[in-house]
Design a protein that fits this description.
The protein is an alpha+beta fold and about 55 residues long. It has one domain: 2-Layer Sandwich (Alpha-Beta Plaits), CATH 3.30.70.20. The strands form 2 sheets. A two-stranded antiparallel sheet has the order 1-4. A two-stranded antiparallel sheet has the order 2-3. The termini are close together.
């Protein structure tokens, strides 16, 4: 199971530096590649708007 980023994302960039497998890509709303995500939760822990949740 991978994490997903909701529309609440503000594209602040906090999560992208935390991902150990570089599964997050930038955009107006960041996206997590479910094939690369290891479900570690590091991104969700640092999201200031709580826009990242388990799928």
């Amino acid at each position: 199971m991978a994490y997903v980023i909701t529309e609440d994302c503000t594209a602040c960039g906090s999560c992208i530096d935390e991902c150990p497998v570089e599964a997050i890509s930038e955009g107006d709303i960041y996206k997590i590649d479910p094939d690369v995500c290891t479900d570690c939760g590091s991104c969700a822990d640092v999201c200031p708007v709580e826009a990242i949740h388990p799928e």
